[in-house]
Specification:
Length: 291
């Protein structure tokens, strides 16, 4: 089965993040097609995903289109039961489905007042009563899920599930805007920020086209609270350790340096997403560990 996934800007499109995590976090291969929000690119892309009018949207190799994240999650779970999108335990699965449905339909003030922006982290964000009510509800249902699931690990219903994928953009909002949550809730946010798939998405988000001015906020900045990446930089010239691109196997055209070591890639995006967070990429980690 071949899947094609339509998404918007990785830095800003929270629903696109959810859709992509349903593939990457569960090991399901997918071809990704990106279009810039608020431009002609998006409707142009979605013409190939009709009747979908928003991202994410998935097209199967027979032309069938799946729209809306919940539908994508359920269809993938049916087609790939071995991937474990939903918990195997009935009780945990029921809780996870309840959480995903509420996230899909709710938290209007959190979405409106704190749009996803993975390129910055603000300090001194004003929390309105409506926003605080959404945060209180998050605390309530996250704690409820752990009690119901008997879960004391990092995720809500046992192993990482659709419910966690749906809350990943919420975790990013709490991180971006420094929203006040309990230590237990913050531990859950930290688990998302450190999740390998989330780190890869954010690394791509940092280099995925120019900033969208509509998301800019006149607020003091602070460092991103997630794992500190290995320091790296783009390089104009040098001799890479690898003869072909670490990801595609194509000839090397772009270089990066980390701790005095040089690696090569087949295009600027491959290089730049690696510079953004080198240890988020398994192929780079394998090359790095060879030393």
């Amino acid at each position: 089965m071949t899947y094609d996934l339509a998404i918007g800007d990785r830095a800003y499109s929270s629903w696109s993040l959810r859709g992509w995590l349903l593939f990457d976090a569960f090991g399901i291969p997918v071809r990704t097609h990106v279009a810039r929000l608020y431009s002609a690119e998006l409707p142009d892309l979605l013409r190939a995903f009709a009747p979908a009018r928003t991202v994410p949207a998935v097209r199967l190799d027979d032309g069938t289109v799946i729209q809306e994240s919940l539908a994508i999650a359920e269809e993938l779970a049916s087609r790939h039961p071995e991937a474990g999108l939903w918990p195997a335990d009935q009780r945990r699965r029921a809780v996870a489905r309840s959480l995903a449905a509420e996230m899909h339909a709710g938290f209007r003030h959190l979405r409106g007042e704190c749009p996803m922006n993975l390129r910055v982290a603000y300090r001194e964000w004003t929390v309105t009563p409506d926003l605080q009510a959404d945060l209180d509800r998050l605390e309530e249902i996250w704690a409820w899920a752990r009690r119901m699931a008997g879960q004391d690990g990092p995720w809500l219903c046992g192993t990482y599930s659709v419910a966690d994928a749906f809350f990943a953009p919420v975790a990013s909002r709490i991180a971006t805007y420094g929203l006040p949550v309990s230590p237990e809730a913050w531990a859950y946010v930290e688990a998302h920020l450190a999740h390998p798939s989330f780190r890869r998405w954010r690394a791509m988000a940092l280099v995925d086209g120019p900033d969208q001015p509509i998301y800019a906020r006149d607020q003091p900045l602070r460092p991103w609270p997630g794992p500190e990446p290995l320091s790296a930089r783009a390089l104009e010239s040098g001799t890479p350790e690898n003869e072909t691109c670490l990801y595609s196997g194509k000839p090397v055209t772009h270089l990066m340096e980390a701790e005095g070591r040089v690696f090569g890639f087949c295009n600027a995006f491959c290089r730049d997403k690696t510079v953004a967070d080198p240890l988020a990429w398994p192929a780079f980690v394998t090359a790095w560990d060879r030393h």
